[in-house]
């Protein structure tokens, strides 16, 4: 994990149908920070998170990832990033372990089954279930969310973009996810949390409030 990563946004803004989603946002994020992105429903929290992750391009402004003072390209950002959102699609015909292993393959890192199971356990998925050949079509919404979170944290990403990561989770699952987010920050990751949940906001070091345009 790179601990010299910085992410700098300068007046980034997104327009849809020629209308700005929110007022321009600027910040500089550094290793071991947990930053909450807050705002009312529909304010653009998910949109901002996607722009930070280079999934969406800003209509105006820039968002630059740098490692060791050198600008990172799209491939560098992709392999350094972990992302989770409630709407993230999963594959019904794959097991939980296969989902985690898939992340490793996409990043060029071979994950052992034991490593994948351990990671899934860290997010509250029962080890026996994780080790089984049970496909995700048989999982509950909460179990699927645990798999999404494990996928985001796989391969120790330098930056984590967590969009309402504890949605559909019970108190135990919520505590597990937030505990893993804190541990990731302690190891040097930059963690962004798009949220209005007070439990998620409580672990953040600072807050970026999205304001309507």
From the 3D structure, determine the CATH topology.
Answer: Rossmann fold
Biggest β-sheet: strands ordered side by side in the sheet: 8-9-10-5-11
Shape: globular
Total of domains: 1
Percentage of residues in strands: 15-25%
How many strand units?
Answer: 11
From the alpha-carbon coordinates, what is the Rg to the nearest angstrom?
A: 17 Å
Please outline the major beta sheet: 5 strands, parallel
**What would the average pLDDT be, to the nearest integer?**
95
By CATH reckoning, the class would read: Alpha Beta
Provide the low-confidence segments as ranges.
Answer: none
Give the ordered list of helices and strands.
EEEEEHEEHEHHHHEHEHE
Distance between the termini: 37 Å
The class by helix and strand makeup works out as alpha/beta
Explained architecture:
This protein is of the alpha/beta class and 213 residues long. It has one domain (5-209): Rossmann fold. It is built from 8 helices and 11 strands. The strands form 3 sheets. Strands 8-9-10-5-11 form a 5-stranded parallel β-sheet, sandwiched between helices. A 4-stranded antiparallel β-sheet has the order 4-1-6-7, with helices on one face. The chain is globular and about 50 Å long. 41% of the residues are buried. The mean pLDDT is 95.
């Amino acid at each position: 994990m790179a601990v010299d990563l910085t992410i700098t946004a300068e007046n980034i803004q997104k327009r849809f149908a020629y209308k700005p989603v929110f007022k321009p946002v600027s910040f500089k994020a550094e290793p071991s920070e947990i930053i909450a992105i807050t705002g009312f429903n529909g304010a653009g929290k998910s949109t901002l998170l996607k722009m930070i992750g280079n999934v969406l391009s800003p209509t105006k402004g820039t968002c630059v990832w740098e490692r060791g003072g050198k600008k990172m390209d799209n491939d560098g950002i992709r392999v350094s990033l972990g992302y989770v959102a409630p709407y993230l699609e999963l594959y019904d015909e794959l097991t939980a372990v296969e989902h985690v292993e898939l992340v490793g393959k996409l990043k060029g890192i071979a994950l052992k089954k034991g490593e994948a199971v351990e990671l899934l356990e860290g997010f509250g998925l029962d080890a026996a279930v994780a080790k089984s050949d049970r496909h995700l079509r048989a999982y509950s919404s909460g179990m699927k969310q645990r798999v999404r979170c494990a996928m985001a944290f796989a391969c120790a990403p330098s930056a984590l973009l967590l969009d309402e990561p504890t949605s559909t989770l019970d108190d135990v699952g919520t505590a597990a996810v937030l505990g893993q987010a804190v541990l990731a920050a302690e190891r040097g990751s930059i963690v962004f949390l798009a949220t209005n949940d007070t439990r998620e906001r409580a672990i953040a070091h600072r807050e970026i409030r999205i304001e309507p345009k």
